[in-house]
Design goal:
Elements lengths: L16 H22 L8 H9 L2 H11 L4 H14 L4 H6 L2 H7 L6 H17 L6 H5 L2 H8 L7 H10 L10 H10 L8 H11 L5 H14 L18 H6 L4
């Protein structure tokens, strides 16, 4: 039996880096298999994925991801649809319009004033780069995308990683609150670790080609089972792999 918590201690002490990496990969494959069986992913439940699939526009994906910050995907989807209806999720229109109109359109997502200013800054940047859909920026690679976008207030590493992963530019695991919570409880990442440390740890667990799927599955699991309050540990398909279950819930 592979236990998530073993990664933080005994796996590292087992011997070679190769054996530790193989152990991590086996654990990642087992987690993916169980989560695939337990959850049926629906792209409409993930606003950034939905916008990426239906529009193919990096700029629109970024706007959708900003709307999802500290919000539910359902609320972010409502805000995105309303913004598109009232103004249009188009850099030229959003750069011209008064920021208060943006805020009114996206009220459903919460933090509307803050998010409206971020969206306005994104639109202005896209026009400054003469790249209204930001397709050209993506061709410059992940480092250039991060350097350019994270200079903007309101854009953090998770938002950029969602853009990169959902558009297929980078094979990574964006870390939102659900991903962090599930990963920490399983012992895949150290509690309270920096964003980049959690992302790096998950990239070592989940194989190439499955990392964005892992991101979505961990979110689905965090929403429905591994909830912040009153997690459904007895119904969890990962309970035998879970540090949290063994230590906090008396699992054996």
């Amino acid at each position: 039996m592979i236990c998530g918590g073993q990664l933080s201690g005994s796996v590292r002490g087992k011997g070679s880096e190769d054996s530790a990496e193989a152990e991590r990969r086996r654990l990642g494959a087992e987690i993916l298999k169980r989560l695939r069986d337990a959850h049926r992913l629906n792209v409409e439940e993930f606003v950034s994925s939905y916008v990426s699939v239906t529009t193919g526009s990096p700029f629109r994906v970024l706007v959708a991801t900003v709307l999802s910050q500290n919000s539910t995907d359902r609320a972010a989807m409502r805000a995105y649809i309303e913004l598109d209806r009232r103004i249009g999720v188009v850099a030229e229109k959003l750069a011209r319009v008064d920021v208060r109109r943006i805020a009114r359109a996206i009220r459903a997502a919460g933090l509307s004033d803050q998010k409206a200013r971020t969206i306005k800054r994104l639109a202005s940047l896209a026009l400054k780069l003469d790249d209204p859909e930001l397709r050209g920026l993506l061709t410059r690679g992940p480092d250039a995308v991060r350097e350019t976008l994270m200079d903007l207030k309101g854009i953090g590493p998770k938002t950029v990683d969602v853009l990169l992963a959902s558009t297929g530019v980078l094979d990574t695991v964006p870390v939102d609150t659900h991903v962090r919570r599930v990963s920490e409880r399983l012992g895949l990442a150290e509690e309270g670790a920096r964003y980049e440390e959690v992302r790096s740890a998950l990239e070592k667990v989940f194989p190439e080609g499955s990392r964005y799927e892992a991101h979505l599955l961990l979110i689905a699991h965090g929403r429905s089972v591994c909830r912040s309050r009153r997690p459904l540990c007895d119904a969890c398909v990962l309970s035998d792999l879970c540090n949290f279950y063994r230590t906090s819930r008396g699992g054996s």
